[in-house]
């Protein structure tokens, strides 16, 4: 009996001691994460406060706030920024068996500073009207002069492009990648501008024949409530690059516990929830991202695109190579 009451008391006090809230700095838009957080609160009673903003601004804010920062988790939509936050000593290492089991090794930091929570691939989209998919093969082949004035891509300040270029540096070396970037730039149909959706729109109206975009943007347009987006998306095809070689480039959205957090345990539990089956299924269905853990059903739109071979490079490499990628893109004249 005594043991029983000790147990009850322990349970009670441990619950009381656990923080009832967790603060997230999120570079992911509120609509793409809030419903999930509400569910978490419903299930655990833990309140989750969300501050959304651009990743760089949130990282700056963490730096300025230092040890006084109220943030417990930093969530970003690219591994490059998570790596940067780690380098700036803004994240803390956590050890979680459930995270390590749920998330393949290549999609998390080897030291436990950040964890990938969903996957996206950066693919080639093409104008169905003017391009046959048989003419496409690899990212490398986009450098071929046959595509002169035919390619649209967003700016080199965009981290998705930086990570793609980092992956090329990892596989081909810096010299070859720089030549590739120069050739790609000389194939551009217009000076880089706009976001990924704008590149899809440009392809749909024939401003360019090809573009590089993240998978969920195309899926989002295909299932959009805006008729013009659905129409634009219907005019482009998706091509999985490098399927006979290393596979298509993938990136993550992910998160890490902040260095300043006074509730690291609670923050880690929320990470575990994000990597759990329920949250992974929600991501896949609503954000059209690929689940990071195995055995989760994909959205109908993603199913249409079939299986693809993905690059097995450890994503921590993309962070490490980011600086050389950015410099190289600059030298190549990629605006
Ligand atoms: Fe995005």
Explain what this protein looks like in three dimensions.
This protein is α/β, with parallel strands linked by helices. The chain folds into 2 domains: 2-119 and 251-303, 3-Layer(aba) Sandwich (D-Maltodextrin-Binding Protein, domain 2), CATH 3.40.190; 120-249 and 311-331, D-Maltodextrin-Binding Protein, domain 2. It has 15 helices and 9 strands. Strand 1, helix 2 and strand 2 (47-52) form a beta-alpha-beta unit. The longest helix has 16 residues, at 2-17. It starts with a helix and ends with a helix. 45% of the residues are buried. The model is unreliable at 11-16 (pLDDT under 50). The chain binds fe (iii) ion. Fe (iii) ion binds next to loops.
> What CATH architecture label of the largest domain applies?
3-Layer(aba) Sandwich
Portion in strands: 5-15%
| Percent range of helical residues | 40-55%
Task: Using the coordinates above, name the CATH class of the largest domain.
Answer: Alpha Beta
- Give the biggest beta sheet: 9 strands, mixed
CATH superfamily of the largest domain: Periplasmic binding protein-like II
Bound molecules: fe (iii) ion
β-strand number: 9
Topology-level CATH name of the largest domain: D-Maltodextrin-Binding Protein, domain 2
Secondary-structure element sequence? HEHEHEHHEEHHHEHHEEHHEHHH
Give a quick precis of the structure.
The chain is of the alpha/beta class and 335 residues long. The chain is 44% helix and 15% strand.
How would the blueprint of this fold be written?
Blueprint: H1 2-17, E1 21-26, H2 34-44, E2 47-52, H3 55-65, E3 73-76, H4 79-87, H5 97-102, E4 115-127, E5 151-152, H6 159-172, H7 174-186, H8 196-204, E6 210-214, H9 215-222, H10 227-234, E7 236-239, E8 250-257, H11 264-274, H12 277-286, E9 290-291, H13 300-304, H14 316-320, H15 322-331
Parallel strand pairs: 1-2, 1-3, 5-6
Antiparallel strand pairs: 3-8, 4-6, 4-7, 4-8, 4-9
């Amino acid at each position: 009996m005594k043991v029983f009451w000790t147990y009850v008391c322990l349970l009670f006090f441990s619950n009381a001691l656990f923080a009832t809230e967790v603060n997230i700095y999120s570079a992911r838009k509120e609509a793409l994460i809030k419903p999930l957080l509400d569910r978490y609160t419903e299930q655990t009673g833990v309140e989750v406060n969300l501050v959304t903003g651009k990743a760089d601004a949130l990282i700056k804010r963490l730096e300025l706030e230092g040890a006084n920062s109220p943030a417990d988790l930093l969530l970003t939509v690219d591994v490059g920024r998570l790596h940067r936050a780690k380098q700036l000593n803004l994240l803390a290492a956590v050890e979680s068996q459930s995270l390590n089991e749920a998330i393949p090794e290549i999609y998390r930091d080897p030291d436990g500073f950040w964890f990938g929570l969903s996957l996206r691939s950066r693919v080639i989209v093409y104008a169905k009207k003017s391009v046959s998919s048989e003419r496409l093969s690899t990212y490398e082949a986009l450098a071929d002069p046959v595509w002169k004035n035919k390619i649209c891509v967003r700016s080199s300040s965009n981290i998705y492009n930086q990570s793609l270029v980092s992956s090329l540096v990892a596989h081909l070396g810096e010299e070859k990648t720089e030549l590739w970037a120069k050739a790609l730039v000389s194939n551009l149909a217009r000076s880089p501008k706009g976001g990924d959706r704008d590149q899809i729109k440009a392809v749909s109206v024939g401003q360019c024949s090809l573009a590089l975009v993240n998978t969920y943007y195309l899926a989002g347009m295909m299932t959009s409530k805006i008729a013009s987006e659905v129409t634009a998306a219907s005019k482009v095809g998706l091509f999985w690059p490098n399927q006979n070689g290393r596979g298509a480039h993938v990136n993550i959205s992910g998160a890490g516990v902040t260095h300043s957090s006074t509730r690291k345990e609670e923050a880690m539990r929320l990470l575990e929830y994000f990597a759990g089956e329920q949250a992974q299924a929600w991501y896949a269905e609503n954000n059209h991202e690929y689940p990071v853990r195995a055995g989760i059903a994909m959205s109908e739109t993603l199913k249409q695109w079939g299986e693809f071979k993905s690059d097995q490079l450890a994503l921590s490499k993309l962070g490490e190579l980011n600086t050389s990628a950015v410099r190289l893109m600059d030298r190549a004249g990629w605006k």
